[in-house]
Specification:
The protein is an alpha/beta fold and about 210 residues long. Helices cover about 55% and strands about 15% of the residues. It folds into two domains: about 120 residues, Rossmann fold, CATH 3.40.50.2300; about 60 residues, Orthogonal Bundle (Arc Repressor Mutant, subunit A). Strand 5, helix 5 and strand 6 form a beta-alpha-beta unit.
Amino acid sequence: MKNIINVLIADDHAILRSGLKMLLHSAGGIQVAGEAGTGREAVESFKRLSPDIVVLDISLPDMGGLEAAREIKKLDPAAKILVLTMHNNANYVREFVQIGVAGYIVKKSADSELINAIRAIGRGDMFIDPSLTKALLMEAPARGRNPLSHREEEVLRLLVKGYLGKEVAARLEISVKTVETYRARIAEKLGISGRAELLQYAIKNGLFSAEPE
């Protein structure tokens, strides 16, 4: 039996929610489990419905999208959140990536990227709107030659896509302790450890693709 991805849509515009529901239902394999019009409703709906993915707007009444995302991640650190917003701004991406969202796309790309993003996130990947990877790339400082080994690159690629240490270990057939050693080496070599900064580095050095695999 084909797996269905259950999605919660949180946006304060009812017409947009309706349009997104039609788009997702037409795709096949994706089901809208519920809707929310405010940040607080998004959090409460997440508690009640336990969706596979939350499609979350940034600008929500009573509790902004960033705060709502933090609350959802507190409830379930493994929650998959896809930020859908009109803000084409690399600063927003960094803030949301730091708290562990699985994806970020702009509304003007929804008709072409939303389904790809949901399917990628459903597979366990991370998805950043291609237009935003360009913005992150432009802001990333030049670091000269890539100092990472091939194995360190493999570990970094999986980490910035959102995989946990034990998942990286399983995919690369190494121990969790070894993954942590590689993580420490990467941070030391690059002089950075935050997920957003690591994502910038990965994009700049061709280690992260915004396109689904």
